[in-house]
Amino acid sequence: MPIAAGLYYFVHEADDTTRPPLILIHGAGGFHLSWPPQVRRLAGERIYAVDLPGHGKSEGMGRQSIEEYAGDMAAFMDALGIHRAVFAGHSMGSAIAITLALRYPMQVLGLILIGSGAKMRVSPAFLEGVSNAHTFASTIQMINDCSFGPKASPRLKELATQRMGQSHPSVLYNDYLACNAFNAVDQIEKIKVPTLILCGMEDKMIPLKYSKSLRDSIGSAQLIVVEDAGHMLMLEQPDVTANLISRFMKDLAPHAGR
After folding, report:
1. d(C-alpha 258, C-alpha 253), whole Å
2. Neighbour order of strands in the sheet with 3-4
3. Any idea where the domains of the chain sit in the sequence?
4. Per the count of CB atoms within 10 A, which of 30, 96, 118, 255 is most buried?
């Protein structure tokens, strides 16, 4: 089982070692399988899908701040000898990616921000619900009901609810505390790397206006709105998401990844 800096990761190798690595960072209560196979196994790219502390197969109890998670990702890169990478983050993972670009700009070649914003306030009902053992399961159901667009298959939503329900309640609660405290509004204009912003048209968790604000604040950013998708757009529209990421990666000039 591959472990680096205490973090489990899935790796997809590419024949062309000159391509920059793409590191996938999941959202709150997620893990590496939050990324569909079309993205995790993107043809021609070297990809690392990481389980954050306390998530999936990684040990620990999670963090209470985005900055701590960003530190974990920097340590992960050091452990594998990765000097520069492109980061794709979903929701909380995008906040981590943004923080990496602000704190470690020389290590970030590009950003792919999915269901993102420069701040991520969490519903008080979600915070209270996941902190209480009696309401944890029903709150997980409510969160997932809000996370998918109306055309998402019932089976897909059921599987996502099961996976999030396997999270330790304190880990998910800490994730939401970290998201709720995240606010990079005053710094976001400092990001200069190529940035792709993806948002589901039906995103209720972090609505489109937040992605538009990101695009307006990051000079190098491109925003693409994905139809028939909500907050979990990479699961709802995996082929579309994979194609958009692939195109973005191919547009980047080749760089040595190590």
Report:
1. 15
2. 3-4, 7-12, 47-50, 22-25, 85-90, 108-114, 195-200, 221-226
3. 3-251
4. 96
Instruction: Read off the DSSP letter of residue 206.
Output: S
Spatial contact of 244 and 237, defined as CB atoms under 8 Å apart: no
Domain 3-251 - what CATH class?
alpha beta
Q: Which residues of 109-129 are buried (b: 16+ CB within 10 A; e: fewer)?
A: bbbbbbbbbbbbebeeebeeb
Dihedral angle, C-alpha 133, 68, 193, 91, nearest 10 °: 0
Q: What was the pLDDT predicted at 255?
A: 46
145, 229 Cβ separation under 8 angstroms: no
pLDDT in tens, 20-42: 999 999 999 999 999 999 999 99
Q: What is d(CA 122, CA 124) in angstroms, rounded to the nearest whole number?
A: 6
CB atoms within 10 A of CB 183: 15
Least confident of 9-18, 92-101, 168-177: 9-18
* E strand or H helix that includes residue 37: helix 37-40
Beta strands in 38-188 (DSSP E): 47-50, 85-90, 108-114
Cα dist from 176 to 74, 145, 149, 182, 185, whole Å: 21, 17, 21, 10, 18
Which pLDDT score, from 0 to 100, does residue 18 have?
A: 80
Q: Which pair of structure tokens corresponds to residue 11?
A: 């790796």
Integer Cα distance of 65 and 82 in angstroms: 24
Per-residue burial over 206-228, b = 16 or more CB atoms within 10 Å of its CB, e = otherwise:
bbeebbebbbebbeebebeebee
pTM: 0.96
